[in-house]
Amino acid sequence: MADISKVKDTAEALIKETGKIIIGKRKQLELIITAIICNGHVLLEDLPGSGKTTLVRTLAIALGCERKRIQFTPDLLPSDVVGTTIFNQASGSFETRLGPVSTNLLLADEINRAIPRTQAALLEAMEERQVTIDGKTFALPDPFFVMATQNPIEKESTFPLPAAQLDRFFLKLALGYPDKEEELSMLDVVGDSIPFDKLNAVTDPAGIEEMREAVRSVHMDDSIKEYIVRVVQKTRKDPNLRMGASPRASRCLYQGSKALAAVRGRSYVIPEDVQDLFIPVMSHRTDLSTQATYRGADKNSVIKSIIESEPVPPVKEKML
Fold this sequence. Notes:
Elements: H1 2-18, H2 26-37, E1 41-45, H3 52-63, E2 67-71, H4 78-82, E3 83-88, E4 93-98, E5 105-109, H5 116-120, H6 123-128, E6 130-133, E7 136-139, E8 145-150, H7 163-166, E9 169-173, H8 180-190, H9 205-215, H10 222-235, E10 241-243, H11 247-263, H12 271-282, E11 287-288, H13 290-294, H14 299-308
Parallel strand pairs: 1-8, 1-9, 2-5, 5-8
Antiparallel strand pairs: 3-4, 6-7, 10-11
């Protein structure tokens, strides 16, 4: 239980440190930290000015990891992301220079502004934690995770992410509008400037690895595993969805539920852990059917109805 307690303590420290700048986003931070523990990538999709980039930069400092940023634009080339081979005139030989993808935390800002060819340059990195340049493969640092942002309402000069790339994101989240009190607090904290210089690292790559090791010991009852498989398979049969979730979604729910339980200080998974992750894990892996789109259906509401209609397994005594 000591290791699980350390996971909770570190998660709380990250939330507290990030809260020096990011106001009122505890739930989103809890889920992002869960994804990081699972070595997962996160897609933040929300309106311009909602704090997506600021959140990523703030959390990166608190994590104590090396971080780099790529501003995605239509003229960005794959070599600008992964790197390239150049000729060194002094040595008379070719040298490989890795791009900004060689880091712990990569902020892919406005990722859907890049052309599909450049978007595809991240596929190998996100799935295999490596890049290939001129036939040579280079391992990326450990940990490596991508936190990408995109604005949903802007259509000009954007290229929607393909399903194969969306599926590589562990979670998709929105920050949403702050309430009145949160917005007032935000003006007090960042109204004049954003005090990044006041942030401190509360963990490091070794600390993240320790959390991962601790999460592996979290117990998941067979009834919870069956619950995960049932709700994922229901997305493939729901008439409101044209495309259901992939088997990777089941794995994300499995890993994520264990990590979220540890973040909340438990050594066992309960159905609520799965429920809290269901929409963030499923929203980018499913598509509405044509009929549902014409009816004006909301995809998240359809996904929510799927898990709400599934009987919840009891929390068995041996899990406690």
